Amino acid sequence: MEHPTHDSQVVVVGAGVAxxxxxxxxxxxxxxxxxxxxxxxxxxxxxxxxxxxxxxxxLLGLKPDxxxxxxxxxxxxxxxxxxxxxxxxTKSAVAVIINRMRFDQYLAKRAVxxxxxxxxxxxxxxxxxxxxxxxxxxxxxxxxFRGEIVIDASGAGSRxxxxxxxxSPDWTQLxxxxxxxxxxxxxxxxxxxxxxxxxxxxxxxxxxxxxxDHSARVGLACRKGNVKKLLDELVKDFWPKSNVDATKSGSVxxxxxxxxxxxxxxxxxxxxxxxxxxxxxxxxxxxxxxxILAGRAAASAAKSPxxxxxxxxxxxxxxxxxKFSSDLKRMGIAHRVFAGLSDETLNRLFExxxxxxxxxxxxxxxDFQGKIISHMLRKRxxxxxxxxxxxxxxxxxxx
Length: 399
Ligand SMILES: Cc1cc2nc3c(=O)[nH]c(=O)nc-3n(C[C@H](O)[C@H](O)[C@H](O)COP(=O)(O)OP(=O)(O)OC[C@H]3O[C@@H](n4cnc5c(N)ncnc54)[C@H](O)[C@@H]3O)c2cc1C
Known about the structure:
The structure is a single chain. The protein folds into 3 domains: about 5-45 and about 100-170 and about 255-325, FAD/NAD(P)-binding domain (3-Layer(bba) Sandwich), CATH 3.50.50; about 70-100 and about 175-255, D-Amino Acid Oxidase, subunit A, domain 2 (D-Amino Acid Oxidase, Chain A, domain 2); about 335-395, no CATH class. The protein is built from 11 helices and 20 strands. It has helices at about 15-25, 55-60, 100-115, 160-165, 225-240, 285-300, 305-340, 345-355, 355-365, 370-375, 380-399, and strands spanning about 5, 10-15, 35, 50-55, 70-75, 75-80, 85-90, 95-100, 115-120, 125-130, 135-140, 145, 150, 175-185, 190-195, 205-210, 215-220, 245-255, 260-265, 265-270. Helix 1 packs parallel to helix 3. It starts with a strand and ends with a helix.
């Protein structure tokens, strides 16, 4: 059977945060946009914990909305491997917890309202260049979608960048992650809680995020060990009387960004481009903001002559890096060093943090962490720990 070909100007793959933002922005620039999503429902399944800073949300042109906002957050409690927790409480709310399924659906609805044609149950298998100059996507056993520019926003594991002549993020840097939606927990406050240590989450951390007065999203990602066993132990230790309402698995990307995010009539954005904070695996803000830039660039390129397009697409790559890459570089180094630390060094590090809490509360930024990382490294107590940190890092390479 002959399958139809759908024509448009910008074709976006993946209706996650990056794809929805890109499609919405391109459509607002008066081009015909299609958005292709493999699942029957946008936002399902969801793997994400849904922590987004208020500043980041505003960078995405959004405000907390009861449709997707579950809770407001005023800081974080850090649990070192041993000893008392360290609490960083901000003067006012700093973040929100979102229901990621509802968030993605909200963004997709907004994009459709702006004129985007959304196709669900549409799994893209191949990116193609056509002899007449256009580009397009092949859906497995289905139609073709032809356009002037393709944006790949299909998340971690995408193979489309390679087909477009680009490199993919280092997929070996995907850490296995698991989350439980807990109900009937003890009273939940307005703080996110993080747990560190090689007995808890070797090479990364575990988290507890309040979603209601007596419910929490508790998860864990790690470099070594059995993620389910570690998460079950954490739940048993801290919320022994709670119920596990739902289980979600998903891999946390800590690779850092790819070296090039554009090729001829093709852009890549979000997790597919490695646009994720390596310290936490958070990518909603960076991917969503880069989605806006990609949508704008794709619309402008689609309306321009072929020989002018490369400059516009290249500019997208420059623009998102101007905004985020200096912080991403420092976060990458911090993550690599942190991943190799012994429990003893982690304990000392958190002890040092305790002495600088007012500065951390004032300067820390959830999305742009480069400044606070550099600031802390200049502190005497942190500098004194550097030989230990270096020793642990070298040791971890050989263990
Ligand atoms: C356990 C966990 C917790 C996390 N917690 C946070 C957090 O608290 N805060 C934060 O900022 N980030 C968090 N992240 C990271 C965040 O979820 C991602 O960075 C973000 O979702 C990336 O958005 P995206 O649009 O690039 O990709 P995705 O959200 O993965 O969206 C990609 C979309 O493309 C679709 N798709 C895939 N392949 C195809 C195909 N071939 N054809 C058509 N459609 C396709 C998928 O179905 C999906 O809808 C977490 C990640 C994990 C795993």
